């Protein structure tokens, strides 16, 4: 009989994977699992020599994973570390975890930890609540895996759609959404590193009751080969052994409770914010006209009422950069907000239900708190300026109707539920929002609040968009609202300005305006840069209003800052910065001049250079700069006079003359309270 050596055995096992699996299961699997549970040796594993690892070393490594899970109180960190280990064990380039949940009675998958690789960090891969990707179970391979609770192995993604090439499933499409960028399996790279998807192994995760908990998906075996049956077997063994202990019943229950609490919170918010049946009658007075509720009327009947109810656009001046909200009630602004959607031409084009549109804008107005400055009036003014930049400023030429609708909506939503204090105060005071959002705290809250409203069927103006259209408008809202974080703008100031200025410069090299427009419309990145700068221009637009408006709004802004300063002094026991200190109110003109010079001037100068139609904003900005500078000089002159008077009194005192006590303070008080001062509210 021929001698049997190791090479012969390995060759036989490689040629008979089914037998190898059966033999392993019956002779070694129990011992390996036992070793996993019993060993306590700490082994350092060299990730560069995977194929040289013994089964014992692999067992000890898996045990380290389990111990890490049991000892680490931070579930996300434990899950992330586990996934990195699994990527190594499976020889996979990347891995993602999708969580299953029931929300509002609908089963769905949501990203939890995404795009994990050997060199990734938890911060890069952990998906925050406001950026999670959610889709139903009838979408993509991962949705299908969750539905049927069976593994899917795609050896070659270029053959997706060819049943003979896909193991376990004849699936037509895999859809993945990552970091706000959507992509389908294709040959070209999916990110700046040149990475492409070649093969996929997707595995359902179930609990002890065989209920679906999530889906783990691996991408690209490192040796370039497809995932094979041994990989499937290894994955099955790992999931069966671990039971994905990080997703044990207790943890899973906690996660479900968190989701339930989130749903309850959203219900509470909607109850107080959502436009009520009696409130909608202020605009859609169907009871008076038709004797029935709005949802009992057809679109033509509702349209007829709106034609009579809404304020004429020319009369309200919503197309004007000098628009003033002082003469309008908050309900008038709701009506003007509705009118802007009509003027954009999106109501009919995207089949926005009239009742949903009215309820949405009305609910936005209720979602803004009644605070000194960041209230509904400010929210509306930002939306109106966005509308005016698009229409009167002619920037609409670069954007589709769908994009323009998203930009208007972002403007109206951008500060909803603002608390009257800035991001730094949220962090200093330990506000839960600061713990939920690591950066752009309030901006992310405003964004999530707006999305919460849009998720309600009665308020969802996007309800008749298809999937791709819906993803685009949400993507643009994400970019636009986060762009209003001035701290983020300052952090990348030179980069933002340079990119925008480069676009403006480039526009001047085109002889044909139509050619330039066509070029811009095809350049998504440039359009998003311009949109982000538009949001900055909109958020700061009060500085570019006529002086009689700007001076009054500036006092409202300052008053809100001083209110925060009072909180910092009393609650946090800290000295506020000069801008927040009401004891330095007289420095407001100086602060305004600095704000115009270092923040606002570039924005409006470049937009005026970009589109001459926007020049009125720059002209009013420069005029306001003169007005503030005049007040600054007046204040400095009076301070100089006070200083001279003080010096004269000191000289007189030194000559044995007695000054009246409190006289200097009275002089300063008389100046600060001078009824003729231009800074006094009307």
Automatic annotation (TrEMBL):
<dbReference type="GO" id="GO:0007165">
    <property type="term" value="P:signal transduction"/>
</dbReference>
<feature type="region of interest" description="Disordered">
    <location>
        <begin position="650"/>
        <end position="682"/>
    </location>
</feature>
<dbReference type="InterPro" id="IPR029016">
    <property type="entry name" value="GAF-like_dom_sf"/>
</dbReference>
<dbReference type="Pfam" id="PF01590">
    <property type="entry name" value="GAF"/>
</dbReference>
<dbReference type="InterPro" id="IPR023174">
    <property type="entry name" value="PDEase_CS"/>
</dbReference>
<dbReference type="GO" id="GO:0046872">
    <property type="term" value="F:metal ion binding"/>
</dbReference>
<feature type="binding site">
    <location>
        <begin position="374"/>
        <end position="378"/>
    </location>
    <ligand>
        <name>AMP</name>
    </ligand>
</feature>
<feature type="binding site">
    <location>
        <position position="415"/>
    </location>
    <ligand>
        <name>Zn(2+) 1</name>
    </ligand>
</feature>
<feature type="binding site">
    <location>
        <position position="592"/>
    </location>
    <ligand>
        <name>AMP</name>
    </ligand>
</feature>
<feature type="binding site">
    <location>
        <position position="415"/>
    </location>
    <ligand>
        <name>Zn(2+) 2</name>
    </ligand>
</feature>
<dbReference type="InterPro" id="IPR003018">
    <property type="entry name" value="GAF"/>
</dbReference>
<keyword id="KW-0140">cGMP</keyword>
<dbReference type="InterPro" id="IPR023088">
    <property type="entry name" value="PDEase"/>
</dbReference>
<feature type="domain" description="PDEase">
    <location>
        <begin position="298"/>
        <end position="635"/>
    </location>
</feature>
<dbReference type="InterPro" id="IPR002073">
    <property type="entry name" value="PDEase_catalytic_dom"/>
</dbReference>
<feature type="binding site">
    <location>
        <position position="539"/>
    </location>
    <ligand>
        <name>AMP</name>
    </ligand>
</feature>
<feature type="binding site">
    <location>
        <position position="414"/>
    </location>
    <ligand>
        <name>Zn(2+) 1</name>
    </ligand>
</feature>
<feature type="binding site">
    <location>
        <position position="415"/>
    </location>
    <ligand>
        <name>AMP</name>
    </ligand>
</feature>
<protein>
    <recommendedName>
        <fullName>Phosphodiesterase</fullName>
        <ecNumber>3.1.4.-</ecNumber>
    </recommendedName>
</protein>
<feature type="binding site">
    <location>
        <position position="378"/>
    </location>
    <ligand>
        <name>Zn(2+) 1</name>
    </ligand>
</feature>
<dbReference type="InterPro" id="IPR003607">
    <property type="entry name" value="HD/PDEase_dom"/>
</dbReference>
<feature type="binding site">
    <location>
        <position position="539"/>
    </location>
    <ligand>
        <name>Zn(2+) 1</name>
    </ligand>
</feature>
<feature type="compositionally biased region" description="Polar residues">
    <location>
        <begin position="654"/>
        <end position="670"/>
    </location>
</feature>
<dbReference type="GO" id="GO:0004114">
    <property type="term" value="F:3',5'-cyclic-nucleotide phosphodiesterase activity"/>
</dbReference>
<comment type="similarity">
    <text>Belongs to the cyclic nucleotide phosphodiesterase family.</text>
</comment>
<dbReference type="Pfam" id="PF00233">
    <property type="entry name" value="PDEase_I"/>
</dbReference>
<feature type="active site" description="Proton donor">
    <location>
        <position position="374"/>
    </location>
</feature>
<dbReference type="InterPro" id="IPR036971">
    <property type="entry name" value="PDEase_catalytic_dom_sf"/>
</dbReference>
<keyword id="KW-0378">Hydrolase</keyword>
<keyword id="KW-0479">Metal-binding</keyword>
């Amino acid at each position: 009989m021929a001698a049997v050596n190791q090479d012969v055995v390995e060759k036989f096992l490689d040629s008979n994977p089914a037998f190898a699996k059966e033999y392993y299961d019956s002779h070694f699997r129990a011992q390996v699992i036992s070793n996993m549970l019993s060993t306590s040796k700490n082994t350092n594993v060299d990730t560069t020599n995977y194929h040289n690892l013994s089964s014992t070393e692999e067992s000890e490594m898996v045990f380290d994973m389990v111990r890490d899970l049991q000892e680490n109180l931070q579930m996300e960190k434990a899950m992330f570390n586990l996934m990195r280990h699994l990527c190594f064990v499976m020889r996979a380039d990347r891995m993602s975890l999708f969580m299953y949940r029931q929300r509002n009675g609908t089963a769905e998958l949501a990203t939890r930890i995404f795009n994990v690789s050997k060199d990734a960090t938890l911060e890069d891969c952990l998906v925050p609540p406001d950026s999670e990707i959610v889709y139903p179970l009838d979408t993509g391979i991962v949705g299908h895996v969750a539905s049927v609770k069976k593994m899917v192995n795609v050896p070659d993604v270029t053959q997706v759609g060819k049943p003979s090439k896909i193991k376990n499933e004849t699936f037509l499409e895999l859809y993945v959404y990552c970091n706000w960028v959507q992509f389908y399996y294709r040959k070209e790279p999916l990110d700046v590193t040149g990475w492409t998807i070649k093969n996929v192994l997707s595995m359902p995760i179930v609990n002890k009751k065989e209920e679906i908990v999530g889906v783990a998906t691996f991408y690209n075996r490192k040796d370039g080969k497809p995932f094979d049956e041994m990989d499937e077997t290894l994955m099955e063994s790992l999931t069966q052994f671990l039971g994905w202990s990080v997703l044990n019943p207790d943890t899973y229950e906690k996660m479900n409770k968190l989701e339930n609490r989130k749903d309850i919170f959203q219900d509470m918010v909607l109850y107080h914010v959502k436009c009520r049946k009696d409130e909608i009658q202020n605009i859609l007075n169907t009871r008076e006209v038709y004797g029935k509720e709005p949802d009992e009327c057809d679109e033509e009947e509702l349209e007829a009422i709106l034609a009579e109810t809404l304020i004429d656009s020319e009369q309200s001046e919503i197309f004007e950069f000098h628009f003033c909200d002082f003469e309008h009630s908050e309900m008038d602004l709701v009506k003007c907000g509705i009118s802007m959607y009509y003027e954009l031409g999106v109501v009919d084009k995207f089949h926005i239900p009239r009742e949903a549109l009215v309820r949405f804008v009305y609910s936005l107005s209720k979602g803004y708190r009644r605070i000194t400055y960041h209230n509904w009036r400010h929210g509306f003014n930002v939306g109106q300026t966005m509308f005016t930049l698009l229409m009167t400023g002619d920037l609409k030429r670069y954007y589709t109707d769908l994009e323009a609708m998203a930009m208007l909506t972002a403007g109206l939503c951008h500060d909803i539920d603002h608390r009257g204090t800035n991001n730094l105060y949220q962090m200093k005071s330990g506000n839960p929002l600061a713990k939920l959002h690591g950066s752009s705290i309030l901006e992310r809250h405003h964004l999530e609040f707006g999305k919460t409203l849009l998720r309600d069927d009665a308020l969802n103006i996007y309800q008749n968009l298809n999937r791709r259209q819906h993803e685009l408008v949400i993507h643009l809202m994400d970019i636009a609202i986060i762009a209003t974080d001035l701290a983020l703008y300052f952090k990348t100031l030179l980069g933002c300005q340079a990119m925008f200025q480069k676009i403006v410069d480039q526009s001047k090299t085109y002889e044909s305006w139509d050619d330039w427009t066509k070029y811009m419309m095809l350049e998504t990145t440039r359009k998003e840069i311009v949109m982000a700068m538009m949001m900055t221009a909109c958020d700061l637009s009060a500085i570019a209003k006529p002086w009689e408006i700007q001076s009054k709004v500036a006092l409202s802004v300052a008053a809100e800052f001083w209110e925060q300063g009072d909180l910092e002094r009393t609650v946090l026991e800290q000295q506020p910065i000069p801008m927040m200190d009401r004891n330095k109110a007289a420095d407001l003109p100086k602060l305004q001049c600095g704000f115009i010079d270092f923040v606002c001037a570039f924005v409006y100068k470049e937009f005026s250079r970009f589109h001459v139609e926007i020049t009125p904003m720059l002209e009013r900005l420069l005029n306001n700069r003169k007005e503030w500078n005049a007040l600054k000089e007046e204040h400095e002159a009076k301070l100089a006079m006070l200083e001279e008077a003080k010096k004269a009194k000191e000289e007189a005192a030194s000559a044995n003359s007695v000054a009246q006590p409190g006289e200097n303070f009275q002089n300063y008080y008389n100046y600060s309270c001078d009824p003729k001062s231009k800074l006094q509210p009307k």
